[in-house]
Amino acid sequence: MPAATPSSARTVRWSVFVLLAIAGLFYVKWYPYYGRAFVAASQHSIGHSILMGDAPSAPAPSWDAAFGYALAYGKAIWQAMLLGLLLGSGIQALLPVNWVQRALGGHGFGSVVAGGLLAIPGMMCTCCAAPVVVGLRKHQAAPGAAVAFWLGNTTLNPATLVFTGFVLGWHWTLLRIALGVPMVFGLGYLVNRTTRADVPAVQLPPLEPEPHSLAEVGRRWGRLFVQMASRLIPEYVVIVLLLGAARAWLFPYVGPAIGNEWIWIAALALAGMLFVIPTAGEVPIVQAMLALGLGGGPAAALLMTLPPVSLPSLAMLGRSFAVRTLVGIAAAVVGFGILGGALAVWLGMH
Description:
Blueprint: H1 6-43, H2 63-94, H3 97-104, H4 109-119, H5 126-138, H6 143-155, H7 158-167, H8 170-194, H9 214-245, H10 247-250, H11 262-274, H12 282-291, H13 296-305, H14 311-316, H15 323-347
Helix pairs in contact: 1-2, 1-7, 2-5, 2-9, 4-6, 4-8, 5-6, 6-8, 7-8, 8-15, 11-13, 11-15, 12-13, 13-15
């Protein structure tokens, strides 16, 4: 059998990546969330809060609390994490570098818009989107485009917006969109503007020559997958365990005593930014906390800060962005949470 030509090999690589993305997202995200939307519409609920259930406080710090949360969280996200690792390594093994550079490599607003729009069908949690962001950055995507893709997966997740409307009320969905759009595209544009095109924020590894044979593509994909998984997963698991144990410190009590004071809005905005949840996990968390008497301001702060970033996802992207960029994004997310809390208080949301 004659060897595949470079053009035919590239066509096969494109086809494999597109098929993986569509089939994987359909199985892990699109089809399950389609059915879940009907549950949200009929029952006005999508399940119990993964944070503390229906209790007014999280369990005391312990190994049981750490492993209990890690197990519940892992069961919720393992398929999406596997898909994220396959896509993140697949970008590097299957996609032409010049295409990624053309689509997402510019330092203007256009690449930010492209990154944010590409994120919307992904609907991944912040940690599952992180391996894809790693792959994009290694394939020369601009930092702002990668940031918009990362934040857009969670903040502008259409399924979560629908769940929020049916479970919490459509005014909460409108608040999320009103602040989520400037968060995703504004922060992406700001990162692009503050990172000079000729001076990379981090030293990206040199690009490997484009593979031409399908056997070489397969070997590279497998090697990149193992490298990515072995680097990202251990630190990710450790931080998730620590956060699971520390829930009682981040969320010591939820009840009517936590009203709309600024201190509570700011405190829960910070806690939400640090903590890690599965996709749409903020909806039952906020629902349970509102039922326990939490003020609308702190609830809005959590709705804005729980999904976009987390301590594990920030650590996973530590080699893809400059530290100052990640710190700035984390601080900005907290700021959007505080702004969301202030708007919820002003609008009398509850």
